[in-house]
Design a protein that fits this description.
The structure is a single chain. The chain is α+β, with helices and mostly antiparallel strands and about 220 residues long. It has a single domain, classed as Lipoprotein localisation LolA/LolB/LppX (outer membrane lipoprotein receptor (LolB), chain A, Clam). The chain has five helices and 13 strands. It has a 13-stranded antiparallel sheet with strand order 6-5-4-3-2-1-13-12-11-10-9-8-7, covered by helices on one side. A hairpin with a 2-residue loop joins strand 7 and strand 8. The longest helix is centred in the first third of the chain and has 18 residues. The protein is globular, with a radius of gyration of 20 Å. It starts with a helix and ends in a 10-residue tail after the last strand.
Length: about 220
């Protein structure tokens, strides 16, 4: 009986190990699913504009990215700028309530390690396989990167979800992002509808425009 139990445990463990995929394989599958590495490498700048509504007020988010790791993120409420974060590849600053503040060295180092024109470029060499889990009935490979978990469909390779713990009022709470629809822009698939959930609060975002290799200038990162 003990022998049978030992064999059973070994068999189950072997099945789990066989079912696992290496992080690079999962990420390359995603890259191939959205257009392929050669096409993604041709993207030097991105300008992605999305909209949502919070407390009956329109919120617009503009994300401007430049290869390899420059980023400018602006948030507007009813067309008024309420926050802005800029990273020029070396240093970073933040604007909130019309006040500009330089971010500390720790945050700048974090940006250098995390930001890329496509996040998966960073994941390729710095991620680990966590587990397999279902998202809306679809089996996913879960990859860990720093404090984030990314869920990729085992069937299609597409990214279905991200989960990260964020600081809010001194506490760390779970923020989950569900990618619900993809659209092809110049041959590359981008998520254009997604849900952000923090606790019981749900906010739906719709991408209004995606500009590739245009509508971004060096001045955006000054």
């Amino acid at each position: 009986m003990k022998l049978l139990k030992t064999i059973g445990v070994f068999f189950c463990f072997t099945c789990i190990v066989i079912g696992q995929e290496k992080p690079k394989e999962v990420i390359h599958k995603y890259i191939n699913a959205i257009g392929g590495m050669n096409l993604l490498r041709q993207v030097k700048t991105l300008n992605i504009v999305s909209e949502t509504e919070i407390h009956q007020k329109k919120i617009r988010v503009e994300n401007k990215l430049k290869a390899p790791n420059l980023k400018c993120r602006m948030v507007f409420r009813e067309d008024k700028l309420i926050s802005k974060i800029v990273f020029n590849g070396t240093s970073a600053y933040e604007i909130k309530h019309d006040k500009k503040k330089k971010l500390n060295n720790k945050k700048e180092q974090e940006f250098r390690k995390k930001i890329a024109i496509f996040s998966e470029f960073k994941y390729l060499n710095n991620s680990n396989f966590v587990r397999q889990e279902y998202v809306n009935g679809e089996l996913c490979n879960v990859i860990g990167f720093w404090d984030k978990e990314i869920f990729y469909s085992k069937k299609t390779g597409l990214k279905l979800k991200e989960a990260v713990r964020i600081k809010k009022q001194g506490n760390k709470i779970l923020q989950e992002t569900y990618y619900q629809e993809y659209k092809s822009v110049e041959g590359i698939l981008f998520p254009v509808k997604y849900l952000v959930q923090i606790g019981d609060a749900k906010v739906y975002h719709v991408v209004k425009s995606i500009a590739i290799n245009r509508d971004v200038s060096d001045s955006d990162f000054e």
